[in-house]
């Protein structure tokens, strides 16, 4: 006859690990330095061309987003808006509107001008849980 052995398995029980705040908050000063470095280096010699500017906006936004994601701001969505236009004795007013959490959300911006173009870059760090 065979013996029946009772094998009891231990079940691990984990406690909830609720985290309400980010481990690394969105640092506006740091992001502004990144913006200034990337935008100034990429747009320094650019002249306005309506065929090239759309692709330039997309590439610039992607480069900025990649550089900011390397900073590892956890629990933040990074939104990058790039606007480039031709300089011609005109005025430009921009307005962005969001549902905003003043304690956690943040943004950084940078304006660039040369004799041919103007550029406005805004990066939003929107907290999500």
Distance between the termini: 59 Å
> How does the helix and strand content classify structurally?
alpha+beta
The profile of the biggest β sheet is: 3 strands, antiparallel
Say how many strands there are: 3
The general outline is elongated
Question: Please, what is the average pLDDT?
Answer: 90
Output the strand order for the largest sheet: 1-3-2
Q: What proportion of the residues form beta strands (DSSP E)?
A: 15-25%
Question: What would you report as the Rg, rounded to the nearest angstrom?
Answer: 24 Å
Report on this structure.
The chain is α+β, with helices and mostly antiparallel strands and 129 residues long. Helices cover 26% and strands 23% of the residues. The protein is built from 2 helices and 3 strands; from the N terminus they run H-H-E-E-E. The termini are far apart. The mean pLDDT is 90.
Concise summary:
The protein contains two helices and three strands; from the N terminus they run ααβββ.
Q: Helices, strands, pairings?
A:
Blueprint: H1 28-43, H2 53-69, E1 76-86, E2 106-113, E3 117-127
Antiparallel strand pairs: 1-3, 2-3
Helix pairs in contact: 1-2
Provide keyphrases for this structure.
129 residues, alpha+beta, 2 helices, elongated
